[in-house]
Design brief:
alpha/beta; GIY-YIG endonuclease; 7 domains; 24% strand; globular; binds adenosine-5'-diphosphate; binds zinc ion; helicase; hydrolase; zinc; ATP hydrolysis activity; primosome
């Protein structure tokens, strides 16, 4: 009986996001999760098998094409991951193929590229064609990049019709297993009957199997190997070679520490969840340095002892060698590492080791949530509140939700670890849906660093106008006198310019949405980018009538200049998007600081996370206001998280440390709560505000982003989008996005809210479908973001 496969082809197109049926040739081993190559119209495409059947009615039907090829020895995706792609596509309103592609480790994809060659008969004149004649077939994309004049509409078709060029498609297989030929000694030979080279080979192989490439290096040719093989003295076999991301690194094995009482309680809760008891999610709420990582390590060991695998997710930026080192020291070979800095080959091999059950634990950034364990026991999200767990391109999934889904499938436990849990998670714990495990003290009773809040309004009143307040200058002086180090944080995102009164600290906000109004330089207007509200730039402060009202924003470079004015001899390392564009720059800058070649590290958010420098006795926050006044409903939460995290960088060594936070809003609850390390106080205030204004986690939101080159069209499309919802739908916008123009594309957004997710998704899906089939959609791109991290 014929077998048929349901294939999703690798084309990102809404209309083609459905399975197509292909016949499976009887000699071919296609399984659910296999990647295949199929004919599709005139092309060949990569596809994913999501189902198999032997429907006899299909056998009669003509016109069903055959699968041409299976791409991997064993399916790269498990059946569970194939199911996940269906659930995820419905959950985040994206294409199923988006998920299937996102799951496959990077660099593995089978792709097709267009190539072009010169086939004309007369000498070409243009440089572009001369280049082709001289260089043979070349990749079309690269050629067009060098000769953009060829990219005119119709140009290529004309050249093709005139027989001057020929286009073709070439396939790239992507990465696979790395194969090597290894020789084994199978028959101890009488040395006297061997030639010199043969004897040399036998000598080497007596010590153990050896790769042919290695034998060649030692002077044994392939011909010698073949002659020995013919005589039955050795045999050769093809084996795969593992590309090990941790190769050559030494890890001193480390045993479990004996758990503290609080750690023991957390481990017991996790154990109970592991045993299949609900709730299966544990919120591990522990201050920085309270021993969360040790809890993870021991829970993973328990899970492995039960024969089950674990996944540990860390925010990309925290995936420092330090973290990997701790895992490798505990689990050695049983750790698989998955992150974007690995080569494609390493990633592929680590993936296969997980699928084959060779690894106990996979540690990686967001996409490691797809690690193909067949028997998963535990999923850990470290720093679970981090926004990097949400992918900001399709599929726009959140790793936390996928963790919960996979845990449901495997009866596995989920551990969400954080010093500042997301409001979403904290709410679930309060509702009794998660187990709450607090770790309230730092290990060894190390104190939390004291946090000093400096009121910058008072500084101004006292006639002190520097961006460094007097208390911060004094603290820096002390650091330099004691030959310690300081970290200065300047949280700044390019677009976030808000207007603030330097005398009273008043910030211009939208009364309806409670977000900071954004300053538009060109029109001298202030605009709320949630609703349509706008107002003119005020000449005086509406609250205190002060004249020092101005838009706000300072760069790290300016901070460095200012610092040098006060301390001319100080050595500074700067860590921000400008200084870290080159590969490896990030680590290099940190090493400079680590080796004490710099006294001060100035940086953006990047300096807040994961760094552990025992000589840092001071952390200074240049202005907390840039975080508070981000035009975003999560601004308060982000501020609290940032301040807590950056405070955790101070006083890690025996010398202790302190934190100085400069602000124009010292009374803001996020700042007060960070000062006293009081999460509960923060939660109480923040949740009241969110509930009142109808923001998550008390509502659900979907952001519909419309973009295109023609601004008028984009605006029209956005209004049209709004008209597709029922009259009583709760809609914010249309309004320009916080970043209004990216690479020539104008961007507008429409935000839809509802208290429940299901009806919201249904309404949005319906509207998006109608939108795509309508004239206003022409030349406008729609992208849908369910549960956006920011608006
Ligand atoms: P967190 O992940 O919460 O920041 P860590 O697990 O990194 O905390 O622990 C902080 C420090 O305390 C580390 O140096 C760790 O080795 C040490 N530590 C953790 N648990 C214990 C324990 N039970 N006994 C002794 N030292 C511990
Ligand atoms: Zn508003």
């Amino acid at each position: 009986m014929d077998t048929f496969a349901e294939i999703i082809v690798s084309i990102r197109h809404n209309r083609l996001d459905r399975p197509f049926t292909y016949r499976v040739p009887s000699t071919m081993d296609v399984r659910v999760g296999s990647r295949v190559v199929v004919p599709f119209g005139p092309q060949r495409l990569e596809g994913f098998c999501i189902g198999l059947n032997t429907d006899s009615s299909l056998s009669e039907t003509d016109g069903i094409k055959e699968i041409e090829e299976v791409l991997d020895e064993a399916p790269l995706l498990t059946e569970e991951l194939v199911d996940l792609s269906a659930w995820g596509a419905a959950r985040w309103l994206c294409n199923r193929v988006d998920f299937l592609q996102a799951m496959v480790p990077g660099g593995v994809r089978w792709t097709q590229r267009k190539w072009v060659e010169f086939t004309g008969e007369v000498e070409p004149e243009s440089p572009s064609l001369c280049y082709l004649r001289d260089n043979g077939p070349v990749k079309m994309a690269a050629w067009l990049k060098s000769f953009p004049e060829m990219d005119r509409p119709g140009e290529l078709r004309r050249l093709q019709q005139d027989g001057i060029i020929k286009l073709s498609r070439r396939e790239t297989r992507g990465i696979g297993k790395k194969k090597i030929l290894t020789a084994y000694l199978i028959n101890e030979a009488d040395q006297s009957k061997l030639g010199n080279k043969q004897a040399l080979a036998v000598g080497i192989l007596k010590k153990g199997p050896c790769a042919l490439t290695e034998l060649e290096k030692q002077g044994v040719s392939r011909a010698t190997v073949r002659s020995l093989e013919k005589r039955g003295i050795i045999k050769t076999e093809e084996t795969s070679l593992r590309r090990d991301p941790l190769a050559g690194e030494q890890f001193i094995p480390q045993q479990s520490l004996s758990a503290t009482v609080a750690q023991g309680e957390a481990l017991q809760q996790i154990g109970d969840a592991l045993a299949g008891n609900k709730p299966r999610t544990v919120l591990l709420h522990g201050v920085t340095g309270s021993g969360k990582t040790e809890v993870y390590l021991q829970a993973i060991a328990d899970t492995a002892a039960a024969g089950r695998g674990s996944i540990v997710l860390v925010p990309e930026i925290a995936l420092t060698p330090q973290m990997i080192e701790r895992f490798a020291a505990r689990f050695g070979e049983r750790v698989a590492v998955l992150h974007s800095k690995l080569s494609a080959g390493e990633r592929y091999d680590e993936w296969c080791r997980i699928a084959a059950g060779e690894a106990w634990v996979a540690i990686g950034a967001r996409s490691a949530i797809f690690a193909p364990f067949r028997n998963l026991g535990l999923i850990i999200l470290d720093e679970e509140h981090e926004s990097t767990y949400k992918q900001d391109e399709a599929p726009r999934y959140h790793a936390r939700d996928i963790a919960l889904w996979r845990a449901g499938n495997h009866d596995a436990a989920v551990v969400l670890g954080s010093a500042t849990p997301a409001l979403e998670s904290s709410l679930q714990a309060r509702l009794g849906n998660y187990r709450l495990c607090p770790l309230q003290e730092r290990i060894a009773n190390r104190p939390m660093p004291p946090v000093e809040i400096v009121d910058m309004r008072q500084e101004l009143k006292d006639g002190h106008r520097s961006i460094f307040s007097r208390p911060l200058l004094a603290a820096l002086e002390k650091v330099f006198a004691e030959e310690k180090q300081a970290i200065l944080l300047l949280n700044r995102r390019g677009y976030a310019t808000f207007v603030l009164c330097r005398e009273c600290g008043h910030v211009m906000r939208c009364t309806g949405c409670n977000v900071a109004l954004k300053f538009h330089m060109a029109e001298e207007m202030l605009r709320c980018h949630y609703c349509e509200h706008q107002e003119p730039y005020p000449l005086t402060c509406p609250k205190c009538s002060g004249r020092y009202i101005k838009h706000f924003g300072t760069g790290t470079q300016k901070v460095e200049e200012e610092l040098r004015k006060h301390f001319p001899h100080v050595r500074v390392a700067r860590l921000d998007a400008d200084t870290t564009t080159r590969k490896g720059a990030h680590q290099k800058i940190l090493n400079t600081f680590k080796n004490k070649e710099a006294h001060v590290l100035i940086g953006t958010q990047m300096v807040a996370k994961g760094l552990d420098f025992p000589d840092v006795t001071l952390v200074g926050v240049i202005t907390a206001d840039t975080a508070i006044n981000l035009p975003d409903f999560r601004a308060g939460e982000r501020t609290f998280q940032l301040l807590t995290q950056v405070a955790g960088r101070a006083g890690r060594g025996s010398a202790g440390g302190n934190v100085v936070v400069q602000t124009y809003t010292p009374e803001h609850y996020a700042i007060l709560a960070a000062k006293t390390h009081d999460y509960e106080a923060f939660y109480a205030e923040e949740s009241v505000a969110r509930r009142e204004l109808g923001y998550p986690p008390f509502t659900r939101m979907v952001r519909l982003l419309l973009s295109g080159e023609d601004e008028a069209r984009v605006i029209d499309a956005a209004s049209f989008m709004v008209s597709l919802f029922e009259g009583d739908a709760d809609i914010l916008g249309p309004s320009p996005c916080p970043i209004e123009k990216v690479r020539g594309q104008f961007r507008w957004q429409v935000v839809v809210r509802h208290c429940e997710l299901e009806p919201l998704l249904a309404a949005v899906e319906d509207a998006a479908e109608k939108f795509r089939c309508s004239p206003p959609a022409t030349a406008v791109r729609l992208s849908v973001d369910v549960d956006p991290q920011s608006l």
